[in-house]
Each structure stands twice: as C-alpha cells, then as structure tokens.
Amino acid sequence: MPTNHRLSTLLDRFVTQLAGEIATRARRELGSAGLGKRAARQKLDMRCRVDGCKNRSRGPRFGYICDVHQEKLSKRQQQAARDAWNEKRDVRRA
Ligand SMILES: [Zn+2]
C-alpha cells in the first residue's frame, strides 16, 4: 500500500531524527555539564591566598586558604592574606 508505505517512511524518518536529536541533546547536556563544571573550576583560582604558598585551597567556603594556613594563621591573618591577594590582582588587571 503506497500510502502506508509513505507513512511508515515518514515515521521512520521522524523516529530516526528524533533519536538523533535526543542523542545530540543528551550528549550536549552531558558534555556541557561536564565542561561547565570543569570551566567553573578553572575560573576559580584555587591557590592558597597566602603569598608564596603553593598549596591548593579548598575554595570559597574556606576563604581560599589551604589547610596548612588555616591552622597556622588566625582569621584576621587569613583575611589580610586575601586582601593582599586581591590588591595584587587588581593592580595586575589595571
Ligand atoms: Zn597556604
């Protein structure tokens, strides 16, 4: 039956496109989620804010101060380290 044949061809094409679209979206979403996380992580400068310290901090929740300096420095000293860091970056940017 020509009509049915045509319909099933259309349907086939539709299903194929749909499947392709779903696969593309799934890949894009998975990919961008992975990339997004990675990109966000790269944007954050995780280095410890203490001058000369090469350790990685645990991020914004810890004020970008590494474990060693969290123990070594008082909150005020940590804040001073952050301030100095920010100042340095501002100078570099300007
Ligand atoms: Zn440190």
What is the approximate shape? rod-shaped
Taking the sheet with the most strands, its summary is: none
Low-confidence stretches: none
Helical fraction equals over 70%
Mean pLDDT, rounded to whole units? 84
Order of helices and strands: HHH
Report on the architecture of this protein:
- There is one protein chain.
- The chain has 94 residues and is mainly α.
- It has two domains: 2-40; 42-94, no CATH class.
- It is built from three helices and no strands.
- The chain has helices at 2-43, 67-72, 75-93.
- The radius of gyration is 26 Å and the shape is rod-shaped.
- The mean pLDDT is 84.
- Bound molecules: zinc ion.
- Zinc ion is lined by residues 48, 50, 53, 55, 66, 68-69.
Concise account of the structure shown:
The chain is mainly α. It is built from 3 helices and no strands. The protein has helices spanning 2-43, 67-72, 75-93.
Describe this protein with a few key phrases.
mainly alpha; 2 domains; 3 helices; 0% strand; binds zinc ion; 94 residues
Itemize the secondary structure elements and their pairings.
Layout: H1 2-43, H2 67-72, H3 75-93
Bound molecules: zinc ion (ZN).
The site of zinc ion has 7 residues, from α2.
